[in-house]
Amino acid sequence: MKTISFRFRTADLEAIGLIPPGFFSRYEEVELLETLRLERGWRLQLLRVRRRGPLRTAAELARESLRIRRMYGLESLELVERRPRTRDYILLVRQRNPPEIARLLTVAGGEITPVAPFRADPEHTVATFYGDEVALRRVVARLGRDGMPFQVLRTSGRPYGGPSGSEELTDRQRSILSRAWALGYYGVPRRTSLTRLAKVTGQSPPALSKMLRRAEGRLVARFLATTEAPPRGEVPVPSDERGAD
Question: What is the rounded CA–CA span in Å between residue 88 and residue 49?
Answer without folding.
Answer: 5
